[in-house]
ABC transporter ATP-binding protein (Streptomyces kasugaensis), 308 residues
Amino acid sequence: MSDPSPWAIEADGLGKQYRRGWALRDCSFRLPAGHICALVGPNGAGKSTFLGAATRLVQPTTGTLRLFGVPVSDPAVLERVSFLAQDKPLYPRFTVAETLRLGRELNPRWDQALAERIVRSGNVPLTARIGTLSGGQRTRVAFALAFGKRPDLLLLDEPMSDLDPLARHEMSGLLMAEAAEHGTTVLMSSHMLSEIEDMCDYLIVLAEGQLRMAGQTDVLVPAHMLVTGVAVEGGVPEELRSRHTLVEARVTGRQFSALVRPHGPLSDSWEAMSPSMEEVLLAYLRSPDAPTLISDEARFDGNRETAA
Ligand SMILES: Nc1ncnc2c1ncn2[C@@H]1O[C@H](COP(=O)(O)OP(=O)(O)OP(=O)(O)O)[C@@H](O)[C@H]1O
């Protein structure tokens, strides 16, 4: 299928309301094809709900979601998307070989050699029943199924959490190689900030069901500065709040430290340095009310503040 749309994902006012309240609210952003994007947020932020909407497991209450320009409700998108769910559902009575055969029979673009390579490199026997595998080995088989499908969009819900460090390293290498070689778009929810920093070039940050940040990492991260100095009357200097956008402020003894989005030069009376991606993400995770930041590229009308 040719791609009329350069956007792998377009969410417009997407929302999901449960009886207890909104799991996802007024979520609007675009993800261009070919990126590896992290979906980040504290527990309960709405990450799985968003991935559920993208895989039609969750019916949105408001808004629309398009994948490659096609409404997610259109069956045409199904063969282009792979989803690796948090609980990695597989048939426990099937052997690994039978599981891969199922993948082959269900998916026209199936890459058997790739799927087998992923399984074999973890020394998982093709004859073993899924129910007898360790959690990490099952995850490896689930990865093989997801990759073997050769999707254009790979959706992963906390994919690496039960892999050992070597397997994690291997899978993240595979993800990056796939994205580079085939232009696969990856959207991956994760709590592992150092891994995100190593792998991802796009960020979607959610808190309490709402979008807090979206865009290219090399636009979002440099939009921030870490500022430290002497606290004023037990808090951060008023100038930081009035002239710049304050994301997070912390006071320890007589010192303050703050993550800000500067609008113009910062006063010489403070020390300012560029934060790492992990420092930016941690600040947003600790501050669910942080003002929203959407890059131009990721922006849909209605988003509030814009980075370069
Ligand atoms: N089926 C459901 N019925 C009612 N509430 C739900 C349902 N699914 C999710 N929620 C609620 O929606 C909110 C968002 O949940 P979601 O699972 O999307 O968060 P998450 O960011 O994936 O969290 P985690 O990091 O813990 O996996 C939570 O408050 C959760 O309790």
